[in-house]
Amino acid sequence: MRRTIFDLDVLRTFSTGMELGNFAKAAEKLSRSTSAVSAQLKKLEEQAGTPIFRKVGRGLALTDAGETMLGYARRLLELNDEAAAAVHSVELEGWVRLGLQEDFGENLLPDVLGRFARAHPKVRIEARVVRNSELLDRITSGKLDLALAWSDGSLTAHCERIGEVPMRWIGPAEGAPGWHASTGEPMPLASLEAPCLMRSAATRALDEAGISWRLAFVSPSLGGLWAATAAGLGLTIRTPVGLPAKVRALAPGAVGLPELPKLGLVLHRAEAELQPAAARLGELVVQSVHGALISAH
To answer: H-helix or E-strand containing 295?
Structure first.
């Protein structure tokens, strides 16, 4: 049986197109013509020996084989990039201070730190998982080199919008949410302490929909919020990113709740030109976030 060796360049085009949601954008980003990208995708299907795309209206969606291929493509590209960074930056040293919003602390941080540490064992990393307002304060005061934060419209001197993710009403994983708009009872809201972007979005959406609400539970951390929501003390608002198994995102319009907007995600940098170690860690954060956002949609 002939061994299949996938072309990493083709896999990068495939992965980039799926991240951007458009292969024309991928062609532009990768400085290729649309015809060259089409040829690469045709080559990928030939190498795979099975269709990886299916037509949906005027667009394309992945087949089951395509979903599998995308997962492996990301892993292969990550390993390739990690190897290249390790070989070309063997002597990379220094100290990087990274800040993350709580939603990304458990699922993104271990992956990013593991990949970075394997490639650059001499670099010391200080990670801080805190609320949005503290992240921005620490960036502007020079106490962090990088900060991944939800966007409230505030900009720092050196920041990059790297994506957006839908906000969702969150309820317990098991059983019914325990409240429905048709009852006329105030919606029990579980929330983080103010100031909180998502708490503000929740109360604004409820007020605009004419749905009364009450603060049923307030927590200083996500751990407490998840516990209260799982126990049925109230519904909360978050994104599908980093949800633990004990809670679930409710379908849009469920139990009579209003639709919610999307929330931007921004990577803030302390300086326009970071030190090599911090710049490389920033690249890994952006890669991991793109993967997380694709899964969240």
So the answer is: helix 276-296
